[in-house]
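User: I'm putting together notes for a lab meeting next week and I want to include a structural view of one of the chains we've been expressing. I don't have a solved structure, so I'd like a prediction I can at least talk through. The sequence is below, exactly as it appears in our construct file.
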Amino acid sequence: MNQNQLQVYVQNNTLDEAAAILERERTEAETKGDKRQAALAWNDLGVVYTLLDRTPDARAALEQAQLLFVELGDAAGQGRAVGNLAQLEDRVGNSEAAGALFMQAADLLHEGNAFEDEYTTRKRLSRYYLSRGATMQSLGENARALTVKPNANLWDQFLGWVYALPLKLMGVGG
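Assistant: Thanks for the context. Below is the predicted structure for the 174-residue chain, given as structure tokens.
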């Protein structure tokens, strides 16, 4: 299932139907030995289970996706699965795990050259820090996000400089 199809299920509030389709896709991929498709299905299932408040199922699906992406040597895929797991942990109030997972996801996405997803994850990490009163960390993540933002314009470059300036002045960021 591609992301546009998944979004339609979310908008139509037919997540149970999406889960059933993804479970079939996962089973077919595993039967064929297609680890990449299985990993993608597990990851999407984790997202759907999260939205359905099926936390244990979501966690298990995302962890399975992560393992498969590791086996495939797909850092970007692994980063997406870890990022989805971070959102799950944040949603259920496990903030310490969420923060560590957001950082891990951003690093994996960078390693996998998935800069658009890294940008989004670093913005989420910035909001995470800001919600916990960690203003300097939030500024740092915003600055890092803008360095990898696809199609960054002059305004984005200026904002990156503004966000990084207090960190440079304090000698804590670059």
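A couple of points you could mention at the meeting. Residues 1-113 form a domain with the Serine Threonine Protein Phosphatase 5, Tetratricopeptide repeat fold (CATH 1.25.40.10). The two ends are 40 Å apart (CA to CA).

User: Perfect, that's what I needed.
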